[in-house]
């Protein structure tokens, strides 16, 4: 999963990003309302966590602008502003949920799960392809009933691929989503990490699920590796 965290307090933003990484969520962080709008319009996020008190423009205006531009990404407002008026304004401006600081990280994760489930976004906590099963919030993957010992980045990579099963993912898209690398970066890291993941997911099994599409990228799907 790929989130945008909009938070101008550096320590709070770092804690959020670290906590999200522990449940296999890759996140961009920005501290300015105008930058938040630009990123939300430019990139394909699965969810946005938005503070209200921001430099540039406040969170209410961020919501109005991205919704007016047609961005339907789920948004959770995470703020110290706890008045009923603020809550109503946030929800009317386009927020999907509103959580007041200080908050429990466990509650935030539960709200994220519920929100993504309601939006059918990413559509389930658990997905299966053939005998491969990935449970995102339990941070667990199995193949033929056996636990796969994956690093956090490998789990994030597998999560991205199984959520986009059947869709060919370019190296550039994978690099941006998993490592936040730009298009001018060295894409060899993608090939190396895909090789490591393939060894763990497909290595001991006759049926291969991770396939190379030459000159394009990689795809995870239930088919034979014919011609590759």
Automatic annotation (TrEMBL):
GO terms for molecular function: phosphorelay response regulator activity; transcription cis-regulatory region binding. One of its GO terms (biological process) is regulation of DNA-templated transcription. This is Heavy metal response regulator transcription factor. SUPFAM superfamilies: CheY-like. NCBIfam families: cztR_silR_copR. It holds the Pfam family Trans_reg_C. Residues 124-222 form the OmpR/PhoB-type domain. CDD domains: trans_reg_C (cd00383). Gene3D superfamilies: 3.40.50.2300, 6.10.250.690, Winged helix-like DNA-binding domain superfamily/Winged helix DNA-binding domain. Residues 124-222 bind DNA. Keywords: DNA-binding, Phosphoprotein, Transcription, Transcription regulation, Two-component regulatory system. GO terms for cellular component: cytosol; protein-DNA complex. The modification 4-aspartylphosphate is found at residue 51. Residues 2-116 form the Response regulatory domain.
